[in-house]
Amino acid sequence: MFGDRMLRQETLKPKSVGATLSRFSRYFRPYWFGLILVALLMAVNAYTQVIGPILIGQAVDCFLAPAAFGSDGDSGRGLQLPASNELQTESDSQANCWWAPEVALGQPVRADLLRGMLNITLVITGYYLIGSVTGGLMFFSMSWTGHNVLRVLRVRLFSHLHRLSLGFYSRNETGDLMSRITNDSDTIQQVVSFALVQVLSSALLILWIIWQMLVLNWAYALISLSVVPLMVLATVWFSNQARKAFRVTRQSIGEVNAELEEGISGVREVQAFSREETNIEQFRQSNALNRDANVKAVAYTSALAPALEALGFLGIAVVVGVGGVLLLRGQTLAGSAISLGLIVTFLGYAQRFNMPISQISVMWTNIQSAIAGVERIFELMDEVPDVQEKFGSPPMHAIRGTVTLDNVEAEYVPGEPVLKRINLTAQPGETVAIVGPTGAGKTTIINLLPRFWDVTGGAVRIDGVDVRDVQIYSLREQIGIVLQDTYLFSSSVMDNIRFSRADASDEEVIAAAKLAQAHDFIERLPEGYETVLGERGSGLSQGQRQLLAIARAALADPRILILDEATSSVDTRTEQKIQAALNDLLIGRTSFVIAHRLSTIRNADQVLVLRDGEIIERGTHESLLAQQGFYYELYMNQFRRQEDLPIQPNGSSPPGPVGVRSGFAA
Questions:
Q1: Rounded distance, CA 244 to CA 13, Å?
Q2: What would you report as the CA-atom Rg of the chain, rounded to the nearest whole angstrom?
Q3: CB 3.0-4.6 Å disulfide test: which of 304, 524, 571, 650 passes with 238?
Q4: Looking at domain 2-11+23-381, does it have CATH number 1.20.58.630?
Q5: Mean pLDDT by 10 residues, the chain (666 residues)
Q6: Domain regions of the chain by residue span
Q7: CA geometry: angle at 584 spanning 578 and 590, to 5°?
Q8: Alpha carbon distance 272, 533 (integer Å)
Q9: Adjacency order of strands within the sheet including 403-413
Q10: Do residues 357 and 136 touch, judged by C-beta distance below 8 A?
Q11: Helix, strand, or coil here: 284?
């Protein structure tokens, strides 16, 4: 299946995580102050978590088991340890109990112990409150920074999509592109808002805990951390597998969105041809691919947490087992005695060590998914437009209207020419009609004028200037286009017409609508020109949409006008109105018309007949009929049946009713 092949290709592509993260980090530079604040809060938060176990260990050694330091007090004051544990000197106990030396060095009474326990409890509570506040501020600051970065990334991606050529959109599905802006961006949002700061703070906490354990007793620390390499190996392996799986999920959700977009947009055709069950089955298969990909990704995610948890329990067992044996035997390690407080401290560190490891493992899979999303977004942003503007190109001067195609060749697929050696010249004010069978290259010719595509040979010149040598925007703003498939936006009628010239006044919009014979039907709409249209102009007939498109082109007041079967979707009466409007609109403008109506061909100054990408005949309507060539055959096979009018002896046709359909294919 095509979808399966795409998924495999997407997964097997080599990706550079380092390069992706480095590129993504550049978007954070404008918000460096937010990152600095996050870093400061992260350091304070990590310190509060590191100091906690130390204070708890001191509470055990100084208050719960003061005999560990050689005190002769009442045995009821704490746990009595073996005499060999008195190896710790008075100076050592003072170092461990620096905040309450009078308790550690004297002969404390029960009241002293209670007072000291209360003090240290308050200190520990204060540190944890500070940790909670700084943690909340840290996540808020990171969320603020991340959402700003994501906003910039989305805007740049959307801007880049508008710069890509039409050829890109013919090769990519709209649903997949939307998925990159929405779903892939959502995965990034989740990471920059929470997961990223969680992973970084956890990593900092792990490093700080390791350092503190080494400071307290490096030998005991190395023993306690013996399971860490296993945790690292498990995390790396599961993360790599999860990343591959999440790349598949990102691609598969794009396939689902593409199927969904096509199914909704084409619902009329689906119902008309009773294709509901087939489309549902295709959508079911796309969903199944997405389900399988997510299940596989979740499988790795779910397996990692229990594996790390088991290793974490093993680490706790090592801390308690080794420390307990040394304590009971009164043995030293690395020249230092093992106290009960030290064991409690290391036990607290082991628990805190396992927690960030688990958090990293869980959040890291989310980060892997986000990295896959970032890669897909950057892949899209790295797409190079097929049509590119030369550096330093000047703007196009005010067009007069002379259009020349000089030995033009064009192709969409290398080695498969669509146009071959096309030569024509249109003078200002002339109308050029282009006819021919389907696939002859008619639409390709008109796409070359505004540089929707570029020639592969020859040149397209307007007023003697090669269109490749000027700024694209300045060229296109002087060319008006009316397509057969009219696109209207979900906004008011006024705004849809004004789309071609944003600074036009309401009076100018109404004048353009009157010119296009659209004013009367607009006035009959519920709110007139302020009526908000549905998606793609739903609620209007095809003819009404076409009239609005013509009004939009008229408002732009272009010097070159392109009509791609602009009247093919309207009835005869509406076409009469449109033709009357076009007669006024075409005055003084160079016009290229892909014609489906005889009236347009009759009035054209030139008629170009295309077949297999070549101009095989050219002339006026009457002269081409007189030649009795390919155009004559098309006319006899299509026009003649619809007109049912005799051909005059000179080969010309009598004036027929305006609006008779020709049947020439697009």
A1: 10
A2: 39
A3: 304
A4: no
A5: 38 58 84 90 91 85 60 38 38 46 50 76 89 90 87 86 78 73 77 79 87 87 84 77 73 74 68 72 81 79 76 83 82 77 85 71 71 82 83 88 90 85 89 85 88 89 91 87 78 86 87 85 87 74 82 86 71 68 74 74 86 89 88 73 45 39 38
A6: 2-11+23-381, 392-478+559-666, 488-557
A7: 100
A8: 24
A9: 416-426, 403-413, 457-462, 465-466
A10: no
A11: helix
CA distance 570 to 430: 24
Rounded Cα gap, residues 137 and 141, in angstroms: 6
- As given in the structure block, the two tokens for residue 178 are 């939307």
CA dist., res. 547 & res. 580, Å (int): 12
* CATH number of the domain located at residue range(s) 392-478+559-666 in this protein: 3.40.50.300
Sheet with 431-435: strands ordered across: 479-482, 560-564, 590-594, 431-435, 606-611, 614-619
Query: Does 392-478+559-666 match 488-557 in CATH topology?
Result: yes
Amino acid letter, residue 265: S
Tokens coding 80: 């009595």
Q: DSSP class of residue 389? A: P
* CATH architecture classification, 488-557: 3-Layer(aba) Sandwich (3.40)
Structure tokens, 235: 């995390």
